[in-house]
């Protein structure tokens, strides 16, 4: 663990935020947030409701434009107008409700919006075989027992997570942000999801995990960032803090660390 | 921590679902098809006349008269929408087709000089190029359907109006236009191409009614489009989870507009075919057909909540309704009862589906 950390500390950040601020009319949702994320690093983003976590994720994902500040990705300044712009450079979001179509198969969901096709003269037909075998490969990389041809409707919460995460692997994302992935699933499935995050890390992908669950954050994250009232109050390596301290920071019992 | 990626994944805790729990066997379409088969056997024993060639042709022709429109509306239903304007659209396209055909065939009519001339006897109208008038008038009928479909799609996809309300309004608008453009009298196909028109809409090929042949071709095309193209995939995704479709970058607005246009074109074509069989396009033609069309789609397994449906289901629904209607006629049951029975079948089909999905 310690080795991995020194290695990633040397690497150049994949994502750098400088002085990010966001106002919605009179509401100041974010104020002067600086953040650096390195390849293969797992960041836990914590904070009370309304602290600004989702707004921060949405700014990085291109849903909102920041009112102040600068975003650098892979060393270059970036300006996203739409989520597609962020996806194009390698930023993917696994949404809380996972954004899966229940009536389609796992493979169909993985490839939704970027289907593999084969040309037959002027018409392009879906290449079911290629999509199924690529999806099986991705599920294999994630160590998830998920069949490409099964309908998502019949799947467990953990398998659904695997499908959503496999989508991000398809595009070779370099930063994956997950908003509350373990909120609505069973304990055994939480294990699976944390396993999936480990797989992403192994492959050099940076992960930002928004979670209210302290055990999850302490199980997989290298670093924890605490937000409160739109400001970053703490940014610490996980082994230099404790659930008690983080809780105090979230509630405001402790102002900053 | 790191596991060897080469080791094959095993499916220890997730059993593969059995064949009867998957695909058509687990669908409403599957058991409605079964019900249809049982019904056909019963009909065979109940009436010696049922399986005669004449009656079979009759059944094939009658269900083909609604099935093409049912294919179209099934696209819309899969996306989670609805189109109540199909009945009016059938009539409007038929009226425009007949009007254009007649106008272009009347010497002195608008643009007619390009298409027809008088024969030497001074009485017979002769087409300059046989079949051209028919082609132009059918295209005109489909063009108005396309425009109405575009307006439906625009209001629903771009303005965000509810499909039910938009197409309910359109039902009324288009029916009104049918009366306005013909002064309430409807229109009649005419001119030198009228015989081609009748042959192509109500003729037979190798003993098969032509509408049935169109239906089979269109249904096969639809199956390929739905299951083997990105467009079809996006249609299903839209019905399954519209927000997900949007987030994954599917052009949701465009797909929505496209399904309403497809539906309108199918209804227009259906109307043109019906008017060929009727020999006229009265302004009240196909009134309330939207109910038959939607009923057939739903009985065949299309789910009004979106995400489920297909050409086989659409056809099975239409056949089932027609066989029942035909059976009631053969049994000399009053036609007033037919309407009531259709309603019972709709509710039964959906009810059985509900019970079945609870059991699995
Ligand atoms: N689209 C928006 N319009 C106006 N205010 C917003 C919008 N999104 C978020 N906010 C406000 O910004 C603040 C931060 O919200 P959010 O980022 O959702 O917090 P969190 O995800 O940490 O619970 C809240 O006060 C919220 O009301
Ligand atoms: Mg939030």
UniProtKB/TrEMBL annotation, chain A:
InterPro entries for this protein: AAA+_ATPase, ABC_carbohydrate_import_ATPase, ABC_transporter-like_ATP-bd, P-loop_NTPase
A GO MF term: ATP binding
Transmembrane segments annotated in the record for this chain: none
Keyword ATP-binding carried by entry: yes
Keywords, ordered alphabetically: ATP-binding, Nucleotide-binding
Gene3D superfamilies hit by this protein: P-loop containing nucleotide triphosphate hydrolases (3.40.50.300)
Entry keyword annotation includes ATP-binding: yes
Signal peptide (residue range): none
SUPFAM superfamilies, A to Z: P-loop containing nucleoside triphosphate hydrolases
Residue ranges of domain ABC transporter in the record: 15-254
UniProt superkingdom: Bacteria
UniProt cross-references to Pfam families, sorted A to Z: ABC_tran
Protein task: Involved in beta-(1-->2)glucan export. Transmembrane domains (TMD) form a pore in the inner membrane and the ATP-binding domain (NBD) is responsible for energy generation.
Protein name: Sugar ABC transporter ATP-binding protein
Native organism: Bradyrhizobium campsiandrae
Higher taxonomy: Bacteria, Pseudomonadati, Pseudomonadota, Alphaproteobacteria, Hyphomicrobiales
UniProtKB/TrEMBL annotation, chain B:
Main localization category: membrane
Transport as UniProt keyword: yes
Keyword field contains Transmembrane helix: yes
Transmembrane parts of this sequence: 30-51, 63-82, 94-120, 132-159, 165-184, 205-226, 259-279, 291-324, 336-355
Matches recorded under CDD domains: TM_PBP1_transp_AraH_like
Membrane topology: Multi-pass membrane protein
Pfam families to which the protein is assigned, alphabetical: BPD_transp_2 (PF02653)
Alphabetic keyword roster: Cell inner membrane, Cell membrane, Membrane, Transmembrane, Transmembrane helix, Transport
Localization annotation: Cell membrane
Protein's name according to its UniProt entry: ABC transporter permease
Organism annotation: Bradyrhizobium campsiandrae
